[in-house]
């Protein structure tokens, strides 16, 4: 079920690259994502919204959160090229998707810290 | 993970990325590849860090707060100056327009998210190669520029030194016109002219093999020999032998000097020519007509050993208004776009068509330009007009001694016998000796001319028994001098005695020169009775001797000449 949300291959590669820093990477991503979400919700104009979607897309793709990255890509595309209807709905989807992956990353953190 | 290669050199890599997780991931990847990492959260920090730490490579996120990647890239490139600091844009930008903006801002490459450590390592390596290539190019460029300046400076110095030597001559004489490109010296071209003590003019147009400094190095010793020996009164043959021997000694085997030398006597209206490897020079008739070529009959200077060197010259009569025209190979060897040479025929047409001597150089250069489609700067041209000797004023010889120790009461006798006469010219020694008499210095030109004339009469008509009537016309002139050389080479007996007597007088003093030879003598009264006009070419120069000295007589059936010079006491 988690494979829909996260590419496990990416996670194992990340762990191999980061070694001892893997745990810190997971925590940094989770903290960073909270900031991106609040930027998505607090955006005062299209530019800010597009920028937040773009950054969130980049970090989630790096972390293997493929579905989240795809939603962010759609949002960025919509903000830049329209149509603007349904944007609210897209942001809500991102919220839900993040809630799902957040749990998975927390589990991963748990797994690594227990070792 | 890839292992560092053998020639691996750790770089400092600046990472500017506003997402904390991406920054951490990227920093870890780069660090694991063995590099030092600097991190920045926005463009402004990146620029500051770059200015402080001068990292080798920069990884820049395109979209960042405070200052975006585009602006940061522009500022970093400006700070980097000529050095190549590769910038790799970190982006998930997928739109063409955005990628173009990255390149326009100075980006050298892209790295897409999600990051691949393998691709990143390959890109850093490729960028490092570029960076080093650029650094090498810059270093070599600066080195070349330094060397170039150094070389130019050396050339300036060399030319200045050389000009000091070359300008010792008489290229500024009123009957000489010449054209030489400012850097002809570095084309190997050499143009020298100087008066002999007797008022004759020695001229050399030379062309060293090669270009640049190597072609110019031989010019200095050649010029020194030329000026030194000309000033001491040596003739062309001795000067040529000395120049050849010197160049043979100092130049590498593949270097030599083509040269055309002239000894112009405006008094006696003859020119002596030696051409070794230069293009034909020309004797141009007064008032137009067929130019007469001065053909190369010898190998260039610096090739043959002194024993094998041939100093045989040709002697031609001259008439007022005739001109000698010399040129470097740049003229006839000029080729057009189809590799066709300008050639001798075209040159002769230009020479033949010339009506106003003052325009000759212009016409030659125009013909070359028309032929080739562009002008060239390695042409040397020289034009000498035959004028009355009074029009030329050889610079007075400057003496450094006071004259107080001048010897004033002595006599000397030399006897030069066959073997010596063959290869030794005693005149410079005799003339040098007579220079010691200060009272005579004002007449040194006349003294040189007279002594030269007396000696050549004694040698040619006396010892060698050549009939002066042979020099009657221009055609037989050449055969006369050919015969002279043959007889001189075969000479086995005979002598010339030179007796010099210096006597002080109540107010000044006098010099008596006696030149005696072993020849058959001549009918003095008959020769002297001839009208001056007839004496022209074949008069043994007796008229000249009588004109220049105070008293001249021939005794012992013409075998002995007695000539007197006198001077007043110096104030």
Automatic annotation (TrEMBL), chain A:
The modification Phosphohistidine is found at residue 54. Residues 15-104 form the HPt domain. Transmembrane segments: none annotated. One of its GO terms (molecular function) is protein kinase activity. GO terms for biological process: phosphorelay signal transduction system. Coiled coil: none annotated. SMART domains: HPT. It comes from the Bacteria. Keywords: Kinase, Phosphoprotein, Transferase, Two-component regulatory system. This is Histidine kinase. The lineage of its organism: Bacteria, Pseudomonadati, Pseudomonadota, Gammaproteobacteria, Pseudomonadales.
From TrEMBL, chain B:
One of its GO terms (biological process) is phosphorelay signal transduction system. The gene is ycf27. Pfam families: Response_reg, SpoIIE. This is Putative transcriptional regulator. Residues 12-128 form the Response regulatory domain. Keywords: Hydrolase, Phosphoprotein. It comes from Pseudomonas wadenswilerensis. The modification 4-aspartylphosphate is found at residue 61. GO terms for molecular function: phosphatase activity.
């Amino acid at each position: 079920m988690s494979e829909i949300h996260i590419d496990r291959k990416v996670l194992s590669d990340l762990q191999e690259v980061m070694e001892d820093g893997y745990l810190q990477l997971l925590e940094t991503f989770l903290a960073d994502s909270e900031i991106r979400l609040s930027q998505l919700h607090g955006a005062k104009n299209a530019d800010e919204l597009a920028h937040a979607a773009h950054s969130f897309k980049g970090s989630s793709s790096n972390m293997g959160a493929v579905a989240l990255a795809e939603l962010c890509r759609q949002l960025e595309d919509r903000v830049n090229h329209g149509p603007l209807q349904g944007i609210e709905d897209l942001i809500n989807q991102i919220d839900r998707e993040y809630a799902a992956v957040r749990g998975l990353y927390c589990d991963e953190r748990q797994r690594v810290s227990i070792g | 993970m890839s292992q560092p290669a053998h020639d691996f050199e750790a770089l400092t890599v600046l990472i500017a990325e506003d997402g904390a997780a991406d920054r951490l991931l990227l920093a870890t990847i780069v660090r694991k590849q063995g590099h030092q990492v600097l991190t920045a959260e926005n463009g402004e920090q990146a620029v500051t860090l770059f200015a402080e730490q001068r990292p080798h490579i920069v990884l820049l996120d395109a979209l960042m707060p405070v200052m975006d990647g585009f602006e940061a890239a522009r500022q970093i490139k400006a700070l980097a100056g000529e050095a190549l600091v590769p910038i790799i844009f970190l982006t998930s930008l997928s739109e063409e327009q955005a990628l173009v903006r990255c390149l326009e801002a100075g980006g050298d490459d892209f790295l897409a998210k999600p990051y691949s450590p393998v691709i990143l390592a390959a890109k850093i390596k490729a960028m490092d190669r570029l960076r080093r290539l650029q650094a090498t190019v810059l270093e070599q460029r600066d080195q070349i520029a330094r060397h170039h300046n150094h070389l130019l400076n050396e050339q300036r110095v060399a030319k200045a030194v050389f000009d000091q030597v070359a300008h010792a001559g008489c290229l500024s004489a009123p009957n000489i016109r010449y054209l030489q490109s400012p850097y002809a010296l570095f084309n190997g071209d050499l143009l020298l002219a100087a008066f002999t003590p007797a008022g004759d003019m020695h001229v050399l147009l030379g062309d060293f093999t090669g270009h640049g400094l190597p072609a110019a190095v031989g010019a200095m010793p050649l010029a020194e020999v030329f000026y030194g020996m000309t000033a001491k009164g040596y003739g062309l043959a001795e000067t040529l032998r000395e120049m050849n021997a010197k160049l043979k000694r100092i130049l590498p085997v593949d270097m030599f000097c083509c040269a055309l030398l002239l000894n112009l006597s405006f008094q006696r209206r003859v020119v002596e020519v030696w051409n070794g490897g230069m293009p034909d020079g020309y004797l141009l008739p007064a008032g137009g007509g067929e130019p007469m070529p001065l053909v190369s009959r010898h190998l260039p200077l610096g090739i043959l050993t002194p024993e094998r060197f041939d100093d045989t010259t040709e002697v031609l009569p001259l008439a007022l208004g005739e001109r000698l025209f010399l040129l470097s190979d740049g003229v006839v060897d000029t080729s057009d776009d189809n590799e066709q040479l300008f050639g001798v025929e075209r040159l002769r047409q230009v020479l033949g068509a010339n009506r106003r001597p003052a325009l000759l150089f212009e016409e030659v250069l125009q013909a070359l330009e028309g032929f080739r489609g562009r002008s060239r700067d390695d042409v040397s041209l020289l034009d000498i007009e035959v004028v009355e000797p009074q029009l030329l004023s050889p610079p007075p010889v400057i003496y450094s001694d006071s004259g107080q120790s001048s010897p004033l009461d002595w006599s000397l006798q030399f006897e030069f016998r066959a073997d010596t006469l063959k290869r030794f010219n005693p005149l410079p020694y005799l003339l040098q000796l007579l220079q010691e008499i200060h009272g005579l210095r004002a007449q040194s030109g006349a003294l040189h001319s007279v002594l030269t004339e007396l000696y050549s009469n004694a040698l040619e008509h006396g010892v060698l028994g050549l009939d002066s009537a042979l020099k009657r016309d221009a055609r037989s002139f050449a055969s006369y001098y050919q015969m002279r050389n043959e007889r001189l080479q075969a000479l086995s007996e005979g002598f010339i005695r030179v007796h010099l007597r210096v006597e002080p007088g109540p107010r000044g003093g006098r010099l008596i020169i006696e030149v005696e030879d072993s020849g058959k003598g001549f009918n003095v009264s008959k020769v002297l009775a001839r009208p001056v006009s007839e004496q022209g070419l074949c008069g043994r120069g007796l008229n000249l001797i009588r004109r220049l000295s105070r008293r001249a007589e021939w005794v012992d059936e013409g075998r002995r000449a007695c000539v007197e010079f006198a001077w007043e006491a110096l104030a």
